[in-house]
Design goal:
With 129 residues, this protein is of the alpha/beta class. It is built from five helices and five strands; from the N terminus they run E-H-E-H-E-H-E-H-E-H. Strands 2-1-3-4-5 form a five-stranded parallel sheet, with helices on both faces.
């Protein structure tokens, strides 16, 4: 069973995404602030895909992504940003920090599910250090 971390400070989004992904057969971790998301991402039960909001308390999604990518263990871990930050500079910053995919809010659960499926399909292709 694939493990997905969903980090967002909006309870309604966390709840609806968690329910949908669990119906799709995923094990879902949730975090409502950046530090909790980073703790889960770096834990022994490291998720297969991370879904990050940008604007969260304690650490924002960009800070989390920067920290993840700085460690060899997390260098190739698939990360999807889902954010209302939808101007060119924010999207570019996400990709510059090596996000794999950037989805802007509002989004459909189908879009997110497809993004997760795509990220899971490329895991075997990624180089491991």
């Amino acid at each position: 069973m694939y493990r997905i971390l969903v980090a967002d400070d909006e309870p309604d989004i966390l709840s609806s995404v968690k329910k949908r992904l669990e119906r799709e057969g995923y094990f879902v971790f949730t975090a409502s602030d950046g530090q909790a998301a980073l703790d889960i991402a770096e834990s022994e039960s490291c998720p297969d895909v991370i879904v990050l909001d940008i604007l969260m308390p304690n650490k924002n999604g960009f800070e989390i992504l920067r920290e993840l990518r700085s460690k060899p263990r997390n260098k190739y871990q698939p990360v999807i940003i889902v954010s209302a930050q939808n101007d060119f500079d924010d999207i570019k910053k996400g990709y510059d920090l090596e996000a794999d995919f950037y989805i802007t809010k509002p989004f459909t659960l189908g879009q997110l599910t497809k993004g997760i499926e795509t990220m899971l399909s490329i895991i075997p292709l990624r180089k491991k250090d």
